[in-house]
Amino acid sequence: MIQSPYVLVLFYSRHGSVSEMAKYIARGINKTNGIEAKIRQVPEVADTTKVAAPALPDDGAPYCTLEELADCSGLAIGSPSYFGSMAAPLKHFIDQTSTLWLTGQLIDKPACGFTSASTMHGGQEQCIHSMMTPLIHHGMVWLGLPYKNKELISTQAGGTPYGASHLANSTHENTLTNDEKALCEAQGKRIAEMAIKLKK
Question: What does pTM read for this prediction?
Fold first, then answer.
């Protein structure tokens, strides 16, 4: 059976903001003909080693497998910004991708990043850079958000040319502004269109 091409929307979300962003990025992907979104999350990392996570999460998207990452046509990766870097659960997942790197399975596939933080200058852009670095090592093609998306200029909350972002006014606030929603959808649409172009 031939699998339909998909963009993997892979994320870790602690309080729900990044999960909400993933939905709007997926909406942008799904507006593009010939490709679909596949939403996946990563499990928590235990404070004590050797504590296994359940095979299925209690709620939300299923956990991602390395096979789903290897088989994707593009990757949108998201994390809350923790001190200007991606969260440990997402980094832990990426650290397990050496076999994909050795076999070059992600080379020339497009990737983009998205993030959320609860302060205006809470390291959103640096967090996106932290997700970008290992994917460039994998040979992926990084996509930002061009300024043709006017919401980058009008936004009073999240939004960067490096990738979509969200400004949560508190750690438990996950309501996206209209500009943030539009930028997430634009990012999803852009990576979907690029994934189709690069597959040809």
Answer: 0.92
